[in-house]
Amino acid sequence: MSNNDVKDLNLAEGGRRRIEWAEREMPVLRLIRERFAKERPLEGVRVSACLHVTTETANLMRTLQAGGADVVLTASNPLSTQDDVAASLVVHNEIPVYAIKGEDNVTYYKHLSAALDHKPMITMDDGADLVTVMHKERRELIPNVIGSMEETTTGVIRMRAMAKDGMLSFPVVAVNDAMTKHFFDNRYGTGQSTIDGIIRATNILLAGKNFVVAGYGWCGRGLAMRARGMGANVIVTEVDPMPALEAVMDGFRVMPMEEAAQIGDIFCTLTGDLNVIDRKHFEVMKDGAIVANSGHFNVEINIPALEEMSVAKRLVRPFVDQYELKDGRQIHILGEGRLINLASAEGHPASVMDMSFANQALATEYIFKHGRELEKKVYSVPEEIDREIARLKLDAMKVKIDTLTPEQVHYLNSWQEGT
């Protein structure tokens, strides 16, 4: 494959304008890029990144490049690529990109292979596909790899499973677990962008609808909060008693999916697990039910089961497939069951991705410096990086906070004083 595979290089100018627009909302990453350009801490390192190809990702790639990295980018989801952004990175930044919105699975894995042909020293994943393919099919590349970063909950789960089985061949930094990532990106970013994707795809009114949120992790919390803000009656389904209890205390109805399936108007999965909405749930859903996913992979909705149950299928709107069941009921699947916030919308707002990608950039620098000293397991982002990103974000927002006095520091580090 040549040094790029994108839809149309003529889209590049429009992509550049949108990348520049996103940059206005990414002051932390901009500050890091300015430092990287002066210090060149990534000089000579080959980076292969498997991420959603969006305007925000483009600014991360520009930052790594400013730091001296030799970067290649491929898509982490067949429906999430913004084709004008992919074109701009190739034309204006000379970064090889392998990503086309709507590519089939064969092309998707060809693109992963092309990114691995770069012989990366550091990889960057959003869902762990790149690292998994390397471990399964391209093991000759592993000795070159210093380490990797993982952006998503789904990917971190996969990486920890690999480490537990003794199969992980290099250290991985769980960028997803940084507080400045999951507190903000997962909660506020996923919450807003998922609502955006559902509304763009369907143009329905959320107020008064029964909105079922499957999973009450940080992404589910964010979506439940935003759906309630739009006037929906939010129902949460969970398998873990702790977040289920939290959802109850936050004022949401909590019940098993089998019960929710009978009364829900809109469903969205955010769990990272398999068949969260299954055949038995489709069997009892209302006529006209809308089903979407905002977890990383399209396995959370058992679409093959729905296919078997259906007598007809048609595309009624862009990103809306209508399945007609034998009894005449119609169920609508959004975005082929893939990430609806990126399939029909633009993903997270740039201001939250600013913190996520600042973590990616600084974790890349950290891995390049320290990766050879680390064990072959999954690591959290160092706390000093997380706190520095929070500090920079507050500065950019012109928000000031207090600092401890010497007396307060002494008190917090002592045990002698009591009641």
TrEMBL record:
InterPro entries: Adenosylhomocyst_ase-like_sf, Adenosylhomocysteinase-like, Ado_hCys_hydrolase_NAD-bd, NAD(P)-bd_dom_sf, S-Ado-L-homoCys_hydrolase_CS. Its EC number is 3.13.2.1. Substrate binds at residues 54, 126, 151, 181, 185. GO terms for biological process: L-homocysteine biosynthetic process; one-carbon metabolic process; S-adenosylmethionine cycle. PROSITE patterns: ADOHCYASE_1, ADOHCYASE_2. SUPFAM superfamilies: Formate/glycerate dehydrogenase catalytic domain-like, NAD(P)-binding Rossmann-fold domains. Keywords: Cytoplasm, Hydrolase, NAD, One-carbon metabolism. It catalyses: S-adenosyl-L-homocysteine + H2O = L-homocysteine + adenosine. It is found in: Cytoplasm. It comes from the Bacteria. Binds 1 NAD(+) per subunit. The keyword Hydrolase applies. GO terms for molecular function: adenosylhomocysteinase activity. One of its GO terms (cellular component) is cytosol. Residues 186-347 form the S-adenosyl-L-homocysteine hydrolase NAD binding domain. Pathway: Amino-acid biosynthesis; L-homocysteine biosynthesis; L-homocysteine from S-adenosyl-L-homocysteine: step 1/1. Its cofactor is NAD(+). SMART domains: AdoHcyase (SM00996), AdoHcyase_NAD (SM00997). NAD(+) binds at residues 152-154, 186, 215-222, 238, 294-296, 341, 348. May play a key role in the regulation of the intracellular concentration of adenosylhomocysteine. Belongs to the adenosylhomocysteinase family. This is Adenosylhomocysteinase. It comes from Ornatilinea apprima.
